[in-house]
């Protein structure tokens, strides 16, 4: 603890949970319908004049046994969620609930294991070593998948006058990930082109407690009863998941061999890699890639010209799209960090206090007692105005030069962006790969196009983007 932190006044955590059961339901309706996610957390922060407060967090009854949580929405208190000596993440991944293990072959997978469980280090180590062994394939495979995306994008623009990017991005992401782990195209297997559709349903059924469909003709209480009150069953997805499992199991022979050497069952390792590829990676890219194009597209031609100049100069001088060329593109990298800051793919982090612990916001200290749930809402923490100037704005060069040190406050990966993922933490094992792919996406766009125009809006879990035009590169 720093001397400045030790001098902060100890304050009771403000907020309350309302009446038993009814308080949780009221807060759930505020979260999904009355205020919306961002409004839910902002309104309480403003009402309590605190970035640390008590509230019921979704889904509550009967999807999660507990809804009472201590909410963190500032950049200073948030990192307690990454301190595995002080917090327990057993069965916590995206929220206060855990989907049925029916969705994952009957196994509790690595994301739901606490770091104190021996199998966590074994599985996380397998993920990290596998990605390290595959690193030479990242760039060529992604560039190949991006080339197909451009072909489809231009075809749709020519035929329809517009192109819906989200579907194109989903197809590209799945193609890349499948070829990375399975060493073949999904079109060469029984999956064909159905992989993204299968995974979209699989992810949706598990995240339904956090999703609102926004259907105008369906009363809120009916949607709440169907999506948020009880877990959605696995049986409608059983045959689809079996198809995915069978194809991955047959295609990942060498990776599963390594898993067996570590004492893991082949099927358990396969289910873990499906989750890594299909939920962590594909699910994350499903949100991140459209967000990246949305913010860059909305920034307009001025930013496009700056990116074009930086990217084409580096590629020309380095003789191609190489790691060396990418490392010269400081603005491109900053744009990726800024997208992850302003629209993080995973908005929630959850843990339980292992012991009584004192945490700090900018102006106060708070006591969290053993076994209390801690719930972080990341989109406010990474827009903390005490850390970031004009924190609600997308500023492309926010992390250029000396300002790159601010990436330690970008928490999208369940850890600080300045930290590397290890077997001893819960940080995303593919965090560096995600940043790399974001940079590669921008590089390939601006090698091919000078500028582009889009329309954008909101989807269930992120941005939706429609291309209206692209201007091909003139030089």
Structure commentary:
This protein is an alpha+beta fold and 475 residues long. Among the domains are: 7-76, no CATH class; 110-252, no CATH class. The protein is built from 16 helices and 10 strands. A 5-stranded mixed β-sheet has the order 1-2-8-5-3. The longest helix is centred in the middle third of the chain and has 34 residues, at 266-299. The chain is globular and about 60 Å long. The model has no long low-confidence stretch (mean pLDDT 95).
Record the SSE blueprint.
Layout: H1 3-6, H2 22-34, H3 36-48, E1 52-56, E2 68-72, E3 87-88, H4 118-133, H5 135-160, E4 163-164, H6 165-182, H7 195-207, H8 220-229, H9 238-251, H10 253-261, H11 266-299, H12 301-318, H13 323-327, H14 330-342, E5 348-353, E6 357-360, E7 365-368, E8 373-377, H15 378-381, H16 431-448, E9 449-459, E10 462-472
Parallel strand pairs: 2-8
Antiparallel strand pairs: 1-2, 3-5, 4-10, 5-8, 6-7, 9-10
Helix pairs in contact: 2-3, 5-6, 5-16, 6-11, 9-11, 10-11, 11-14, 11-16, 12-16, 14-16
Short description:
With 475 residues, this protein is α+β, with helices and mostly antiparallel strands. Helix content is 48%, strand content 12%. The model has no long low-confidence stretch (mean pLDDT 95).
